[in-house]
Recover the amino acids of this structure.
């Protein structure tokens, strides 16, 4: 099926039937990746079905996704069905806000992500990784996902807030983890937000714990505002009436950046390690490149232009395992997508997971082939056939930060270590806001050039 179908087709596109009352929600929760993939393969570029909350559309063509996220983005909001999931923990931070508040705060945060600022973070990213590797020894089995989560959390706190969270890393990490696990609960997703459930109590406790640390960070910056970090910047802001941001507004942005800025990059690294362990040829090519370019030294910002294969490995890993597997939007006015009218009150789903594995855009789509990313291939790829960081005005603010961090951490680890999957480890992914492994991915680490 192609995207050249502008005429209004009327009615609703075909889609899976679903059950009375619950629609396809149970089918989705039971096997999210299977459900979204089957829906695309069976019904084509646009599918729809009825859920208790209204009609859900799944867009499977890059052009349709471009229309929603980029060319007609003003017609869409994140919407309550997405926002109510994040609100208990990130409040009204920029991942979850809309309109004037989103615009003002995105503008305030943007300078922290300017390419020049990001370059300043490179040395620290490598130093923190080397510090983490101090506790590794050849032959040990390490919980890779947990370690990547801790490392990326420390990096984002230092880079954006100028704070070393060594004393709090567990408390912050555990609270965010509890929250993310709770978001998988069926009752949390289906019952109206005002209904108290054990999951919601768990989320409240996680929030109280997190708030204690984050308000402490804000107070510290109030007392000592001289740094260039994001909190100091937010503390300086005044609106046209001279009002400053409240502590809670600042807290919401800090928690948003902590959450959005560590889990996704950690996932991309975990999945990259998993894929490299299963593709020894790709690992060997990566290691050859690191030996050639680094010649035994630690990686720096200056090495990155020469680490082309390293970059392709990260890109290809986020194609197969996009850390954010899907995006949701709600139309505020009717729109015509693929010849069908999409009305307010409906939900639009777009899945990186599905589009990134579509054989129309990628030969042998399930194979891990970093070398597929040639300039020619990229120039022919429809724009939204690859969108790990989304696109349009709500594109990830941390995309450059994440790509820098992922490449540097990968290079620092793989120049020293070879990582092996523990036999019998299976990969089972959740599909909530992120595609995180349900179980740890333990890996045995071996020093290069040694028997251990
Ligand atoms: C591999 C790593 C990352 C991936 C795959 C990723 C992916 C995404 C995606 C898909 C969105 C759009 C969500 C939507 O529209 O519903 C997003 C938004 C966002 N990301 Fe990232 N992200 C990554 C790393 C980061 C980092 C390192 C930071 C900050 C340090 C960050 C901060 C944010 C924020 C604040 C938003 C909301 C932007 C807005 O709505 O204006 N992300 N990210």
């Amino acid at each position: 099926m192609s995207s050249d179908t502008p005429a209004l087709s009327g009615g609703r596109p075909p889609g899976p039937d679903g059950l009375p009352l619950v629609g396809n929600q149970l089918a989705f929760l039971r096997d999210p990746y299977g459900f979204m993939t089957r829906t695309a393969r069976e019904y084509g570029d646009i599918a729809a079905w009825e859920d208790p909350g209204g009609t859900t559309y799944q867009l499977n063509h890059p052009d349709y996704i471009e229309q929603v996220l980029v060319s007609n983005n003003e017609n869409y909001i994140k919407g309550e069905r997405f926002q109510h999931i994040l609100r208990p923990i990130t409040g009204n931070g920029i991942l979850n806000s809309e309109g004037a508040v989103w615009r003002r705060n995105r503008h305030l945060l943007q300078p922290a992500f300017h390419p020049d600022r990001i370059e300043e973070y490179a040395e620290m990213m490598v130093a923190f990784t080397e510090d983490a590797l101090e506790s590794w020894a050849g032959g040990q089995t390490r919980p890779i996902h947990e370690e990547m989560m801790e490392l990326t959390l420390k990096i984002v706190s230092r880079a954006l807030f100028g704070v070393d969270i060594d004393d709090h890393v567990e408390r912050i990490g555990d609270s965010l983890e509890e929250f993310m696990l709770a978001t998988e609960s069926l009752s949390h997703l289906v019952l109206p937000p005002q209904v108290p459930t054990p999951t919601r109590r768990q989320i409240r406790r996680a929030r109280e714990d997190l708030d204690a640390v984050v308000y402490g960070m804000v107070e510290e910056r109030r007392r000592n505002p001289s740094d260039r970090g994001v909190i100091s910047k937010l503390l300086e802001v005044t609106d046209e009436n001279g009002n400053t941001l409240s502590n809670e507004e600042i807290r919401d942005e800090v928690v948003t950046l902590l959450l959005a800025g560590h889990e996704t990059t950690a996932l991309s690294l975990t999945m990259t390690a998993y894929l490299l362990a299963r593709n020894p040829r790709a690992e060997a090519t990566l290691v050859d490149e690191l030996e050639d370019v680094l010649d035994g030294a630690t990686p720096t910002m200056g090495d990155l232009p020469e680490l082309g294969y390293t970059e392709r490995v990260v890109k290809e890993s986020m194609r197969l395992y996009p850390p954010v597997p899907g995006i949701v939007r709600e139309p505020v006015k009717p729109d015509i997508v693929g010849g069908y009218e999409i009305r307010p009150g409906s939900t639009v789903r777009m899945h990186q997971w599905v589009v990134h594995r579509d054989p129309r855009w990628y030969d042998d789509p399930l194979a891990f082939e970093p070398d597929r990313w040639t300039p020619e291939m990229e120039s022919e790829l429809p724009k939204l056939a690859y969108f790990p960081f989304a696109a349009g005005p709500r594109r990830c603010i941390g995309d450059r930060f994440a790509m820098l961090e992922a490449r540097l951490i990968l290079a620092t680890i793989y120049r020293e270590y070879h990582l092996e999957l523990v036999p019998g480890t299976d990969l089972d992914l959740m599909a909530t806001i992120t595609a995180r492994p349900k179980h740890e991915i333990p890996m045995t680490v071996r020093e290069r050039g040694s028997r251990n």
In short: The CA atoms of residues 241 and 283 lie 57 Å apart. The mean pLDDT is 90. The chain has one domain: 25-447.
